[in-house]
Inverse folding.
């Protein structure tokens, strides 16, 4: 089971025109997820970040931002992605030392959520996660898709 970071959700839902290559890779990844070839989870923290980014992208037009966010969430909810809750405070405290190499504190809830539910990798376009590969392997959607298609190293 893999964990999808907010950057993957963004590429799949909101960046289709801005970053077409990332959209293609994430779209292909969701084909594998929806087909049952791989299990993937994300957290409510990632969904919250997706909402915030969508809404802030149209600020101060809250109606447009809300619709943008709604469409992004509906796209995600149509997939077979699994959801995990926000990490409990205790889990964050216990696991914080494992992920002390993370430079961005906003990455910690993702790493803790992924680790808590036993994910084998965190999938993201956020290079910060490379700092914790000794605890939780990091892959980009492009790398994972290549592996799933048999064009990359075994994962």
């Amino acid at each position: 089971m893999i964990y999808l970071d907010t950057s993957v959700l963004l590429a799949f839902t909101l960046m289709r025109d801005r970053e077409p290559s990332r959209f293609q890779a994430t779209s292909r990844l969701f084909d594998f997820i929806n087909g049952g070839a791989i299990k993937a989870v994300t957290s409510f923290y990632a969904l919250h970040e997706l909402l915030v980014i969508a809404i802030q992208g149209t600020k101060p037009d809250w109606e447009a931002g809300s619709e943008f966010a709604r469409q992004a969430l509906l796209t995600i909810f149509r997939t077979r992605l699994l959801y995990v809750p926000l990490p409990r405070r205790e889990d964050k405290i216990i696991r914080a030392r494992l992920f002390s190499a993370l430079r961005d504190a906003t990455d910690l809830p993702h790493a803790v959520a992924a680790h808590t539910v036993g994910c084998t990798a965190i999938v993201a376009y956020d290079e910060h996660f490379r700092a914790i590969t000794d605890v939780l392997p990091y892959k980009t959607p492009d790398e994972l898709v290549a592996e799933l298609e048999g064009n990359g190293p075994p994962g």
In short: The chain has one domain: 2-148.
